[in-house]
Amino acid sequence: MTEPLTFDLVDDICLGLEDGALSSAQIPSFSAQSCGPFFELMQTLGNENCSKIQPGIYRNLATAKTQNRTRWFHANDTQGYIQVQRLLDDQLAWSDFSIRASRAANAVGFTKADAWKLTGAIGEIYGNVIDHSERIASGYVAYATNGRTFEFVIADSGIGVLNSLRKNPAYASISDSGTALEYALSESVSRLQDPGHGFGFRSIFVGLANISTRVRFRSGDYGRELIRNNDGSIPATTRQLAVVQGMFCSVLCTATAG
């Protein structure tokens, strides 16, 4: 049986390729059972190095990304993909996307209120691509439901959190992407000197506090991850990882029983 692709395996594969301990021909075969790790692997390695990963139920979602489609939705809205440029250019695109995404979340057990919190968080975070990436055309948003989970990914191949944040003189001395991620995930920190313009991540920690299971951010050669424990605590860890261009955000939420 093919082993499921996890973020830990993504880390091992990418670091192995980066330091020469692993060649692309040596990448084992895995199956994507969550869209977050699969999209991060594509973001870090490029599509050509992901041929051994079996996309499973995410095949069409991955195809929308690799074929550079402006938008795609599953027939029953369980999965969706849209480019940030499309959201910027088409005034109706966000309304359509958010309705489809909230409908999908509601169908797998999220309350209507939580479903709209999910789309609200997506809306705030994709705005980060517009405000900070300096490469809007590379940005995209994807979501997928599976069982009682709703997962979304927002990413771009822009200048990254460190380079963006250092454009604010107050943070010009920051020297690594790990510190930059920790600052960016703090409230009201931004490349812009106006304190009201943060990176748009607050909605995850406030609006999704009770339903988020795993939140993962990647930029440069660092990642910051928050995983909910059984006791409800959500510890955060920052680790140095393989280099990824731009910013990658993956959020997995689980509908509460009842």
Counted beta strands: 9
Return the CATH topology: Heat Shock Protein 90
Subunit arrangement of the protein: single chain
Average predicted confidence as pLDDT: 88
Number of discrete domains: 1
Report the structural category.
alpha+beta
- Main beta sheet, described? 6 strands, antiparallel
Task: Identify the strand order in the major beta sheet.
Answer: 4-5-6-7-9-8
First and last CA, distance:
33 Å
General shape: globular
The arrangement of helices and strands along the chain is EHEHEHEEHHHEEHHHEE
State the CATH superfamily name.
Histidine kinase-like ATPase, C-terminal domain
Task: Enumerate the spans where pLDDT stays under 50 for 5 or more consecutive residues.
Answer: 190-197
Short précis:
The protein is α+β, with helices and mostly antiparallel strands and 258 residues long.
What's the structural blueprint in terms of helices and strands?
Elements: E1 3-4, H1 7-19, E2 30-31, H2 35-45, E3 53-54, H3 59-66, E4 71-73, E5 79-83, H4 84-89, H5 93-107, H6 112-132, E6 140-146, E7 149-156, H7 160-165, H8 177-184, H9 202-207, E8 212-227, E9 236-254
Parallel strand pairs: 1-2, 2-3
Antiparallel strand pairs: 4-5, 5-6, 6-7, 7-9, 8-9
